[in-house]
Amino acid sequence: MLSETLRDLRDTDPRRVENLASGISRIMLSLAKKRQPCIGSLRFNNDLSITLANRPLLCTSSILESDGAPRVLDKAYKTCGHFMDDMLKFREEAFSAQPNAVNGEEDCHLQMLHITMLRLLKSQFVDSHSGGPFVLQLTDLHSSNVFVDDDWNIVGIIDLEFMCALPPSMINVPYWLTVDNIDDIAENMEAYNKMHKSFLDVLQGEEQDTALPHDIQLASTIQESWASYALPQSTAWLTA
User: Fold this and answer.
1) Within its chain, how far is the Cα of 195 from the centroid?
2) pLDDT single digits (tens) 27-80
3) What is the pTM of this model?
4) How far is CA 227 from CA 23, 122, 137, 154, 216, in A?
5) What Å distances lie between residue 166 and 5, 63, 95, 121, 126, CA to CA?
């Protein structure tokens, strides 16, 4: 299990980290080989066929639903706009439904601000009428779900039930290659940016060696998505 050695070796053994990045990149590219017709999850049917007909079952939304959030994401989506609208509605209803959704008054105000800003800014990031492209990706990829050999070559992955067809811009560089918790990225931004660039360099190299039957470029799409982080940063004064 990668989590047994990750914390001790990720900052001291670049060879192992590069092997791991190469393995994750090849998995991402393998899942993205086929363009998918909608946003959703795979359904295994009684006749042994597999269809992309389920609602998108993201790991994060499933956790919130288990904690009492209402089920808003209840169908497959043909456009990014409809999916984003329901994601925002789900976030709002989860916020209202959970008695422990906030840590205090300041945190409550901050979360309400984030929800409002997402609605105001979504048109700058999402083409509401876009019908794709969509590709399969893992939404529960963490170090305890990855199994490696002594050199951190990936030999297996578990917990694949949260694999979804989503826009390529939703693929994330694994934050745990730098920090243990996603909330720690802001305090370790320089280290995270360095790792982010190194990972995308590896992904781009693997991408050049992989004959994808479409024009989706994962490395550049992920970089463009991460670069858009600069806009929320520029509006940080609104939280003052």
Assistant:
1) 16
2) 999 999 999 999 999 999 999 999 999 999 999 999 989 888 999 999 999 999
3) 0.86
4) 24, 15, 20, 29, 18
5) 31, 18, 23, 20, 13
